[in-house]
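User: Could you check the structure of this?
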Amino acid sequence: AQAAAAGYENALSRWPDNLTALMGLGNSRYALGDMVAAEAAFRRATAAHPGAGAAWNNLADTLLRLGRKAEALEAANRAITLGGPEAGTYRQTLEEIRADILALERETSVKHRLVERLTYTPARAEDRVALNLALPGLKGEVPPCSTPRPQPVLP
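Assistant: Sure, the predicted structure tokens are below.
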């Protein structure tokens, strides 16, 4: 992929707006795991060829890998709007982005509920004692109760 990227860069030095070379460079950088460089190539492709659905689709997928879900969703919707013979692929990319967003929303909701439960402080001292005994691994998470616990007597 490194040699291919170098070849595409060479072609782009001569034909800077060539869609095939821009897509090839983006795909090569993507394959190498360089998502920032892949994004740059796909952005160049969408700027020079705003009607190229594949460029928008690949940009969407790259943005998803970079964790920029809102931008990914926007690019995927643009690809779908443009349509073409690869519209099914564009819809798959959009569904993957939506699934990722939904999973993040679920995870955030679960974390929020967990934090609410962990920061719950019962009003009665007896309940705080029971909670501290039930959750011994949460040292410091549950405020200490006002009623002291009996201390073991050592011989």
